[in-house]
Amino acid sequence: MHKPSLRWMLVLLVTALVGAALTACGGQAAATPEVREVVKTVEVVKTVVVTVEATPEATPEATEAATTDEITLSDEEFEQAKQIYFDRCAGCHGVLRKGATGPSLEPENTRRLGTTNLASIIFNGTARGMPDWGKQGVLSEAETELMAKYIQMDPPMPPEMSLEQMKEAWEVLVPPEERPTAPQHDRNWQNFFVVILRDAGKVAIIDGDTKEVVNIVESGYATHIVRMSKSGRYVYTIGRDGKVGLIDLWMETPDLVAKTKVCYDARSVDTSKYAGYEDKYAIVGCYWPPHFVILDGQTLEPFKVVSTRSYTYDTEEYHPEPRVASIVASHARPQWVVNVKETGQVWLVDYSDPNNPTIRMLEAERFLHDGGWAMEWNGTERVGLSPYFLVAANMRNKVVVVNTEEEKIEAIVPVGTKPHPGRGANWVHPEYGPVWATGHLGDNFISIIGVDPEGHPDYAWKEVARVELPAAGNLFIKTHPNSPYIFVDAPLSNDETQQRSICAINKETLEVEKCWEVADYGRAVHFEFNQDGTEVWVSVWGKIDAPEGQQGEVVVYDATTLEEIARIPNLPTATGKFNVYNTMNDIY
Ligand code: DHE
C-alpha cells in the first residue's frame, strides 16, 4: 500500500503553518505571543526538514524509515513507559497526547524531532516550562531514552469505566447510622489541617491548635487535593488514580468511612454547599475517562456519570479527551462550576435533580485549569463570596471571569504567561478596591485584577497592577483577611534557592517585603492559614526516598510578624494542605 512520504507531509505542514502565521500577523514579524508560538514551531519544523533534505541518501522512503524503524519496545519496556507517561507527562500533555499545558506529543510531531532531540528535552527541560526530569534525578538516562522512543509510538487507548465498575470499587467502611452524632473528641476540629503526603498516597490530619498529628489516612496514589463538606465534618480526598475517600472528622480518631474509584486519572473533587443540600452530594472531575461523576455525599455511592467529550468552543472540532480541571461549588445556588480544559467550556451544573442535571455550557477559553471565587466585602471585612468565579486559561495567558448568577462569561482578562492561581488571593486594596490575584508558571510577577464592578467600575475585570517577584515558577498564592500579606512560592523555578523560598507581599503597598528560604532541601510549596488567619503554613516537599529529615515537613509562620512558630516534621512529600474552616467557607 502506498502512503504519502513523511517528507512531503512535513513540507505541506510547514507551508500550512507559515501560511497560518502570516495570515495571523499580516505578514509582519510575530507580534502576539500566540503568533510567536506558531513561528517557533515553524522554525523547529523547518530545521528538521532542511536537515533531512540535506542528507544525500535521505530519499523519502529512507526518511520515513529512519524516523520509525528503530522504535521497538519489549512488552515490559512499553508497560514501564506507559506508567512513567501517566506519572510524569499525561497531566500536561494529555493521555492521548493532544497537548494542553504542554504541546501536542502526537507521533506526527515527535517523530520529526527524533529520539536524540526528544531525549535532550526530557532530560534538560525547556525554558517554556518543561521540567528537567533527568537533571532533577527523576528519570535516569535509560528512562529518558525509553520515553523519547515511547512518545514517537502511537498512544495506547486507555479503557473506559462504567458505573458498574465504580460500584464494584465502592466500599462503606462505617455506615452513616453508625457514625457519631456529635464530635467524639474535644479538639477544635474546625482548625484541623488535612495535609497531603503526595508520594505516600496518604493524608495527615493535624490539630491546628496543638500541631499534633491526629491520624494518617490512606487516600490514594499521589493524592491531589482535598475539599471539605459544607458542614466541615467530612473531608473528600481525590487521588491521581481516581480513588475518592471520605473521612469523618467527628470520630474519636478521624478516619476513612467510605471509598470508591470513579476514574483512572483525576484531579478534582467538591461537594454540595447550597442550603438544604449540605453534605448531600459529592462530584469528582476526571482526566481519564473524561467525565464527571456525582456521588452520594455521605456514602460515596456513585450514581451519575456525565461525559465531557464534545466540541472545542472556538473551532467546534470534536475532542476525544476534554479533561475536567477545577470544580467549585456555589454557596448561593445548587450549582457546580465545572471547568472543561481542552474544549474551553465552563459548565454550570445544576444539581437540584442530579440524575437529570441541567447544564449550561459557556464558551470561555481553552485549557481551563484552576481558579477560585472573588469575595464580597463590607469595607475591609469579608462578608462572603461574590457571584464571580475566576479561572485560569493557562496556555492562553488569560483569566476567565464567570458570572454564576447571570450564568454568563463576564470578562476574559489577559495576564502573564501561564497563570496558575490555585484558588487565588482576595483582599481590598486602598485604591483598586476588592481585588483577586494570580501568579504564573512562566513569568516572574503576580497579576492583580479588580473584581468590584459596582464600587470600582474603572478597575473591574482589568489587570490593575503587577508585582515583580525574584523568580518565575510560582505555583501558589494565598492570603487571609486577617493577614497583611500575600504569600507566594516558586517551586518550579530553575534555581534551587528560589525553589525553597517564599515571599511576603504587602497588601497595601504591593511591595515584596521579605523573601526567605523555608528549608535547606526540597521545594517550598502551597500555603494555608489557620482558622483565625494568624498563622500561615507552608509545605516542604522533599523526596520520598530521601534520608529521614529531608522527606518533607510543614513550617508554620506568624502571618503578621513572619516569625517562624513551629516545624511539624516527618511529613513525607507534603504538598497541599487545607484548613477545615477556611476550605468549607472558601476563605482565600
Ligand atoms: Fe495540581 C489544584 C491539575 C501539578 C498540587 N491541580 C489543581 C487543580 C487541577 C490540577 C485541575 C484544581 C482542582 C480544583 O480546584 O478542583 N496539577 C494539575 C495538573 O494537571 C498538573 C499540572 C500536572 C499533573 O500531572 O498533575 C498538576 N499539582 C501539580 C503538582 O505538581 C503539585 C504541586 C503536587 C502534585 O500533587 O502533583 C500539585 N494542585 C496541587 C494542589 C492543588 C492543586 C495543592 C490545590 C490548590 C488549592 O489551594 O486549592
Structural commentary:
There is one protein chain. With 588 residues, the chain is of the alpha+beta class. Helices cover 19% and strands 37% of the residues. The strands form 9 sheets. The chain has a 5-stranded antiparallel β-sheet with strand order 1-8-7-6-5. Helix 4 crosses helix 6. Residues 1-66 have low confidence and may be disordered. The structure holds heme D (DHE).
Which helices and strands appear, and what pairs or packs with what?
Layout (H helix, E strand, L loop, with lengths): L5 H20 L7 H22 L5 H9 L6 H19 L13 H18 L16 H10 L12 H6 L2 E2 L19 E6 L4 E6 L5 E6 L6 E4 L5 E5 L4 E6 L6 E7 L3 E7 L9 E8 L2 E6 L5 E6 L2 E2 L6 E2 L4 E6 L5 E6 L4 E6 L7 E6 L4 E11 L2 E13 L4 E6 L4 E7 L4 E11 L3 E8 L4 E6 L12 E6 L8 E2 L6 E5 L6 H4 L1 E6 L5 E6 L5 E7 L5 E7 L10 E7 L5 E5 L5 E6 H5 L4
Antiparallel strand pairs: 1-8, 2-3, 2-35, 3-4, 5-6, 6-7, 7-8, 9-10, 10-11, 11-12, 13-14, 15-16, 16-17, 17-18, 19-20, 20-21, 21-22, 23-24, 24-25, 25-26, 27-28, 28-29, 29-30, 31-32, 32-33, 33-34
The structure holds heme D (DHE).
Heme D binds next to helix 4, strand 9, strand 15, strand 19 and strand 23.
Core attributes:
alpha+beta; globular; disordered N terminus
Short structural description:
By secondary structure, the chain is an alpha+beta fold.
Please report the distance between the alpha carbons of the first and last residues: 61 Å
- Please tally the β strands and state the result: 35
What does the radius of gyration come to?
A: 24 Å
Structural class: alpha+beta
- Shape type: globular
Bound molecules: heme D
Helical element count? 9
Could you report the average pLDDT, rounded to the nearest whole number? Answer: 89
- Strand content is 35-45%
Uncertain ranges: 1-66
